[in-house]
Amino acid sequence: MKKRLLAVLLCAVMALSLGACGDSDKDDTQKDSNKDVKQPSITELAEYKDFATILTGDYEVTDAKVAAYFSNVVYSAGIGVMEVKDRDTVQKGDIVKTDYTGYLNGVAFDGGAATDQWIDVANNCGIDTSTGSSSGSFIDGFTDGLVGAKIGEKTSSNVTFPDTYDNTDLAGKETTFEFNVKAIYTEVTPETITDAMVAETFAKSYEVSTVAEFMQVMKKELAYNLLMNYVIEKSTFDIPEEYLNLRLEEYQKLFTELYCTQMDIETYLKYYYGTTLDAIKVQWASALQSQIKAELVFEAIVKDAGLNTDEQELKDYVSTIISTAGTLEGNDFFAKEENIYKMLGVGNTDAGKGYFLNQEAVRDYVIENYQ
């Protein structure tokens, strides 16, 4: 129960960077000044032991919530969609992989073509098969011609662009999009996933081998998430502004070191996010407040419940990221142990280390006791 998907772990690392970004390069003067800052505290810890009472209403573990959580997990694991093998005709609820070209008066127009495009037919949008989220909506009617199309055969849709469309050459014009369907896929759901898929994908990460076992884990993981949301929302905290500002400075420094190697941070934010440093710091501050609250809650529960932390989990966590990141293109950062520890804040303080271990201890406590 203590192992989790790498994709989930990587997301957690990024989240931890907000809350535990200890910097091993800090000088002694800064370290001493940090000690003088009033630390945050939890003034009242909400009830967390009575699962049956807490997990009701907005926090109830429903079938719909389990299915949504399941979807996030299978997409993160790279098996969010599976190819349809028992038919060759597109149905409305399918996801198709296709090439397409747009024509205006019989002539292909610029920007109207794509290859290996993943399309959610029912929702008339592209789909990111790594997350299950929309990668952009299409003009009304774009996918109409796909329903009933066969793999390897061409089909088309007549599409009229809105009068307000930003490309004036196409605004208000009737066009034709021609498709070549390459394959048909469907989303993996609790009803369509198989024992073989579970064993192949989740045996190591969740220590399960059957659909029944996997769905039980999904239910318990969701219960843990909902319970922690409840406790964090219902507890009360004292987070000094000076402390929050210090954390904000630390995160900005880490962000700059990680991403702003070729340009200053203001230029980077404007170019990649279309925003300013002042604007994004407001978002960072909000995220940091949530992160600090989570840190305090996990620490308080560990002390209140007398839970044990296992430092081997941190070592396993880092080893898993390193071993898997080496096989993923573009993840060289996570292939270096010192970088991972820096993100966790374990460099010269126990902040990140303590948060990680407390979180794991609470998670195990909830999962082991939730029925």
Characterize the overall form: globular
Please provide the count of β strands. 9
Distance between the termini: 14 Å
N-to-C series of helices and strands: HHEHHEEEEEEEHHEHHHHHH
- Residue-averaged pLDDT, rounded? 85
Main sheet record: 7 strands, antiparallel
Strand proportion, as a percent range, falls in 15-25%
Low-pLDDT runs of 5+ residues are 1-32
Summed up, the helix count is 12
| Helical/strand content category | alpha+beta
Number of domains: 2
What would you report as the Rg, rounded to the nearest angstrom? Answer: 25 Å
Helix % is 40-55%
Describe this structure in words.
With 371 residues, the chain is an alpha+beta fold. The protein folds into two domains: 6-45 and 235-369, no CATH class; 83-187, Chitinase A, domain 3 (Roll), CATH 3.10.50. 47% of the residues lie in helices and 17% in strands. It contains twelve helices and nine strands. β3 (95-104) and β4 form a beta hairpin. α1 packs across α9 and α5 (195-206) crosses α6 (211-234). It is globular, with a radius of gyration of 25 Å.
List the helices and strands and how they pair.
Layout: H1 6-19, H2 28-35, E1 41-44, H3 51-54, H4 63-76, E2 81-83, E3 95-104, E4 107-120, E5 125-127, E6 134-137, E7 154-160, E8 174-187, H5 195-206, H6 211-234, E9 236-238, H7 241-259, H8 265-273, H9 277-305, H10 311-325, H11 337-344, H12 351-369
Antiparallel strand pairs: 1-9, 2-8, 3-4, 3-8, 4-5, 5-6, 7-8
Helix pairs in contact: 1-9, 1-11, 4-6, 5-6, 7-9, 9-12
